[in-house]
Amino acid sequence: MSRVYNFCSGPAALPEAVLKKAQAELLDWHGAGVSVMEMSHRSTEFMSILASAKARLKRLLEIGDDYEILFVQGGASTLFAQIPANLANGYDSACYLDTGAWSTKAINEAKKYTNVKVVGSSKADNYTYVPKWSDVALDESAAYLHLCPNETIGGLEFSDLPETDLPIVADLSSTILSRKIDVSKYGVIYAGAQKNVGPAGIVICIIRKDLLARCDDSLPTIWNFANLAKHDSMVNTPPTFAIYLADLVFEWLEEQGGVAAMEAINQAKAKALYDFIDQSAFYANPIAPENRSRMNVPFTLADESLEATFLAESEAAGLRTLAGHRSVGGMRASIYNAMPMEGVQALIDFMKAFEKRYG
Ligand code: PLP
């Protein structure tokens, strides 16, 4: 079977070149006579893969020496709990900005550990925009400020940060490595791997070293960020194959010209799709144009009764997983780094033809 254009929000499409390389190395990694899945995580071979993944990520995101890079087991949802458990220790509260479903999940989990101050929310307007920092009052005595700069379900994205001395903790699960960021502006960046990094099972966590002093001994051993840093993310057996795949994705990104080159492509892809949606009366996107996500593009059809037909016909045309999240319905095209412009163009061509047939 030939590969199709996969618009899944996660686990998402991986670059074909990465999958081919992994396939070629599957039975015998670099002459070791075993696959990466079969070697000890303490072997020199795997240690070299881990070191390579960290070094490449450091280069790609220009991460300073004052940050630790951790590969944490689990998903970004694991971090929703680990962040307050590690960082709110000794503080009365933590500030959270509420821009959609994933911020809300992070807020609900944090409430189990600390007092959550929701400093801004666009919930009343169905999360169709991102609150302006000038309208947000931060509590400078809080432990940190948590943001979700790309809401994967709602399709909102923002990159401007407030002026504050609070450590900014950002869930970049669906935007990491898709655009340039200034890591030095953040206390913690975390991102589940299964969108722009690799397979599910690991979370990248980039944490400013001074914050590790907050991680208390009462934390479970494998949850303690300071402990993870001390043991180079290997307090116990890490998901070795996921880390190996992440290293291959980082290598591919470097070959593409790095994050700046990806950002230019991502901008062009998102512009083409939003421009097409905006000029059509048949399709619509509800998000304020300045807050629209470059990675996740939700859209609706003027006639909702055509949704099932749209999904069946798009799937048959080799455009996979265009259904919106089950909580919101409609359609959603996730166009992460691995989605080429040709895939976006194929989607636009399909949407045009569909509109002609049914509009
Ligand atoms: N945060 C964001 C922005 C996400 O998009 C997701 C998943 O799609 C999560 C958190 C949760 O990730 P996981 O399922 O890996 O826990």
CATH homologous group name of the largest domain:
Type I PLP-dependent aspartate aminotransferase-like (Major domain)
Instruction: Give the tally of β-strands.
Output: 14
Biggest pleated sheet: 7 strands, mixed
Approximate helicity band = 25-40%
Bound molecules: pyridoxal-5'-phosphate
Terminal CA distance reads 32 Å
What is the level 1 CATH name of the largest domain?
Answer: Alpha Beta
Order of helices and strands: EHHEHEHEEEEEEEHHHEEHEEH
For the record, the count of structural domains works out to 2
Tally of individual helices:
9
| CATH fold assignment of the largest domain | Aspartate Aminotransferase, domain 2
What is the name of the CATH architecture of the largest domain? Answer: 3-Layer(aba) Sandwich
Helix/sheet category = alpha/beta
User: Which value, in Å, is the CA radius of gyration?
Assistant: 21 Å
Strand order within the widest sheet?
Answer: 2-10-9-8-5-3-4
